[in-house]
Design a protein that fits this description.
It is a single chain. The chain is α+β, with helices and mostly antiparallel strands and about 290 residues long. Strands 2-3-1-4 form a 4-stranded antiparallel beta sheet. It starts with a helix and ends in a 5-residue tail after the last helix.
Length: about 290
């Protein structure tokens, strides 16, 4: 058993070295295609996390005027409490608004120090019973005394999801093209290796070697290319997660609520490794079909 294993490994290494340029090209193409797919997955995770607030029902925010009276604030609160189309709401005081302001602009201390709670408006975060009721509820409070404006997230979220869907589609199309290129290169690498050793294969079969005994070194060769490319893509996902996290931290006012965890990156990377191994294995099987009959 150990003798066979050492033979398979030795033959795999010899074949990889013999077709080094094609091997490197195959690995690079697998890496690029899996990076594109992994990037699309990570974008999907980013958007899912970022839209969690709206998915949980917070669809609009009622901003009171800075000088709104307690009576006006109480009137809006009573109306929200009695509104049959409102599922839940949360009142944010001026102090809450100041905390949020400091968090969003923590990298601009001069701006933060120039603002106090009295200069910021209080607000209500409102969750309608159904997302379809968002605009209806918003219109109802827009003209209320003491209300400055009502902002709905529905339009922005729909635009974000639509744009993300287009980007994901583009990534998937690019991945499909690169996947075909990866398979093409691996298939040709295996075919070149098989053709270069065709006499040796004929001799092996004449002395009784089975088709699977002949196939295994070439299948390992394709598997190695796919796995190496996938591992590089795995490391790229870890790096991409760090880049996105740092970018979000620098632009927290624009990207509030968006994040990608290291767990997301690792799970995506593991899926890429499985796909890369499959690409290499399938490519090897296709490459062998012409030269070795089942």
């Amino acid at each position: 058993m150990m003798t066979r294993l050492s033979y398979f490994l030795r033959e795999t290494l010899i074949s990889l070295r013999r077709n080094l340029l094609m091997t490197i090209a195959g690995i690079i193409t697998v890496t690029v295609s899996l990076c594109v797919l992994g990037g699309a997955w990570m974008l999907n995770s980013l958007v899912n996390h970022g839209t969690e607030r709206w998915k949980n029902g917070v669809e609009l925010e009622i901003f009171m005027k800075v000088d709104a009276s307690d009576a006006q604030i109480s009137a809006v609160q009573r109306q929200l409490t009695n509104d049959p189309e409102v599922r839940d709401y949360k009142y944010l005081t001026k102090e809450d608004a100041l905390k949020e302001f400091k968090r969003l602009f923590r990298d601009q201390p001069d701006l933060v120090n120039s603002v106090d709670a009295a200069s910021l408006p209080s607000s209500f975060r409102v969750a309608p019973k159904k997302a379809e009721l968002t605009e209806t509820v918003a219109a109802r409070f827009q003209s209320q005394p003491g209300v400055d404006e009502v902002k709905t997230a529905q339009k922005q979220v729909h635009q974000l999801l639509s744009a993300t869907a287009w980007i994901r589609t583009a990534f998937v199309v690019i991945f499909a093209i690169l996947l075909f290129a990866s398979l093409f290169l691996i298939v040709n690498t295996i075919r070149l290796a098989t053709f270069a050793r065709r006499r040796e294969i004929e001799v092996m079969k004449l002395v009784g070697a089975s088709n699977w005994f002949v196939r295994i070194p070439f299948m390992l060769e394709g598997l190695v290319q796919g796995v190496i490319g996938a591992l590089i893509a795995f490391l790229a996902m870890i790096g991409l997660q760090n880049v996105l996290t740092n970018a979000i931290a620098r632009n927290s006012d624009f990207s509030r609520g968006f994040y990608v965890t290291s767990g997301d990156a690792i799970s995506i990377g593991l899926m890429l490794v499985a796909i890369g191994a499959s690409i290499g294995f399938i490519g090897a099987l296709i490459g062998l079909r012409r030269f070795i009959e089942a």
